[in-house]
Amino acid sequence: LERDALFRKRHNIHVSGYNVPSPLQNFEELSSRYKCEPYMSRNLAELGFREPTPIQRQAIPVLLHDRECFACAPTGSGKTLAFVCPMLIKLKDPSKNGIRAVILCPTRELSSQTYRECKKLAKGKKFRIKLMTKELSRNGDLTKFSCDILISTPLRLHLAIRRKEVDLSRVEYLVLDESDKLFELGLFEQIDSVIQACSNPSIIRSLFSATLPDLVEDRARELMHDAIRVIVGRKNM
Ligand code: ADP
Ligand code: MG
């Protein structure tokens, strides 16, 4: 659509892939267009988020349309909300059907930050959002452990997988956040073990990154089949 193209241009959003959904004009569309329950708008208002950032405008509809997403936008441009918001909307309600979504972050600090952001956005819903801590994995048998969203570093989850402590076969959404840092840190083996363990064939994977080194591009191409690429330039940020 011409209108979408102009809107993207105005917000410095570059996309590639087929059938790219229209970008969000505003957060109200989450209710009007995507039938999201009122808790999300309430939480966004409470956080003081009036307008979606460019990466949110495009990545949120992509993920809400069940498309794989490869998103690149500068640090501080609101990438966390860009994947947490559609994840919560897609999960819809809490459920005890195993581990339903996994977010991988490069460091423990970033994991806790993402955890806090998830909690704020999920306020008013009884989603079970968990941080994969040493304590959690030390509790031994995690095989029957279930939660809506599990946030972890690759290492922590890799160790639990190796000890056959977690069952990731029902994960529906997998996000590799700060994937440039993840790959920079050389965590290939750990990341691969998580990807393999998330064996649900209908899983939706996505990669978020602040920069676009060839390494990340290559990995994105290997990991995803018909991902929509969303790149937000440095200008206008
Ligand atoms: P990134 O992961 O791209 O580096 P973050 O997701 O950490 O960025 O977000 C950076 C900051 O912007 C955070 O403090 C976050 O709460 C805030 N933020 C996110 N989305 C919005 C928005 N739509 N409006 C205003 N602030 C926002
Ligand atoms: Mg981030």
Automatic annotation (TrEMBL):
Locate the DEAD-box RNA helicase Q domain: which residues? 29-57
Q: What family is this?
A: Belongs to the DEAD box helicase family. DDX52/ROK1 subfamily.
Which intervals of this chain are the motif Q motif? Answer: 29-57
Please, which domain of life does this record's source organism belong to?
Eukaryota
Please tell me the species this chain comes from.
Answer: Acacia crassicarpa
Record protein name field = RNA helicase
Q: Helicase ATP-binding domain: which residues?
A: 60-230
